[in-house]
Predict the 3D structure of the following.
Amino acid sequence: MMRLYLAPMEGLADPPMRDLLTRVGGFDVCVAAFVRVTHTLLPDRVFLKSVPELAHGGRTAAGVPVRVQLLGSDPACLADNAAMAAALGAPGIDLNFGCPAPTVNRHRGGAALLTEPELLHRIVAAVRRAVPGDIPVTAKMRLGLEDTSLTLVCAEAIAAAGAQELCVHARTKTQAYRPPAHWEWLAPIREAVRIPVIANGDVWERTDWQRIREVSGCEDVMLGRGAVIRPGLARSIRQPQAEAMAWSAVLALVAEYYTGLQTGPSPQYAPGRLKQWLGMLRGAYPQAEDLFQRVRGLRDPLALARLLWPRPGATQASSRMERGSLPGPGMSW
Ligand SMILES: Cc1cc2nc3c(=O)[nH]c(=O)nc-3n(C[C@H](O)[C@H](O)[C@H](O)COP(=O)(O)O)c2cc1C
C-alpha cells in the first residue's frame, strides 16, 4: 500500500499548516520539523510547543500521526530525548540527517553527519534501544554532504542500526534546493537496504509523484513545498478524478491558517507566515498575486484579517478571531 508523507518544514509546515493540510486529506503520516538536541534533556514544553499534537494522542485533528524529529549528534543525549518524546506520546521518532544550515552543520548536526556513517549507526542504534519497540524509529537523509561517495554506506548504516524507514531527499547538502532533485539515486539506495525508502524532492504535481515512483521504484513519497503550494496535492494523488482545489477553497484555508496562527502560542509570527504562504501559493494560483500584493506591506493583524474576510460576515469572523476561538472545519467563511 502506498503512503504519502507530509515533510518536516521548519517555519512552514507548522502545526496550523499540518492541521489544514491533513484535513484536506490524502496524507498518512506527518513528520514535524526538527527539535534540536544538544547536551540536555529537553523539558516537556519544548516538545509540546513544537508538536502540540502530542497533547492529542500525537495526531492532527484529522487523525494523522505526527512523528517527532530530533536533530543532534550525541547518541546518548538523542536517545534520552527520544525516550522523553515517546513518553509524551510521539507516534514515531525521526532522526534528521539532512539539515543544511551552517550553524547546525558546524555542530556536527544534520547533513554534516553524512560524512560519519559510523556515528549515524551509533545514533540510530542508541535511539532504537531507548524507544519502546512499538514506536517506529526512522531517519531522513540527503544524498551526502558535498558528494555522493558515502550515500550507500550511510543508508546501510542507518538501516543496519535498526531504523524502520529511511526517507531520502534526493540532493546533497551542497546542491541545496537547486533543481533538479536526483531521483536516479533513490533506486540504488532502495536496493541497498531492506527497509522502506520514502522518496522525496521536487514533487510539485501528480505527474511528478508518478514519475518519482517509476524512477525510484519506491512505493511511498514525501511531499514538502509542493503540498504547501497546492494544498490539494495529496488528495488529488489519492483521487485523480477529483477536481483540482479551486482558489476560493484555498482562500478559505488561508483565512483559517491565519486564525490558527493568531490563536496559537506565537501570534507574532502570524503576519509573516501568512505572507510567506500567499507568496508561495502564487506558484500554483496566479489569483494569489493580488492578495499577496495587498497584504505585503501590512503589519496590523486586524487590517490583515479584514483583507481575508472582505465579505459580509467579516465582522463575525474577525470578532471570533479576537475572542481567540479557532473555527472548526467546514465553516463557510
Ligand atoms: C522551509 C523548509 C524547512 C525545512 N525544515 C526541515 C526540517 O525541519 N527537517 C527536515 O528533515 N527537513 C526539512 N526540510 C526539507 C524538507 O523536509 C524536504 O526534504 C525538502 O523540502 C525537499 O522536498 P520538497 O521538494 O517536496 O519540498 C525543510 C525544507 C524547507 C523548504
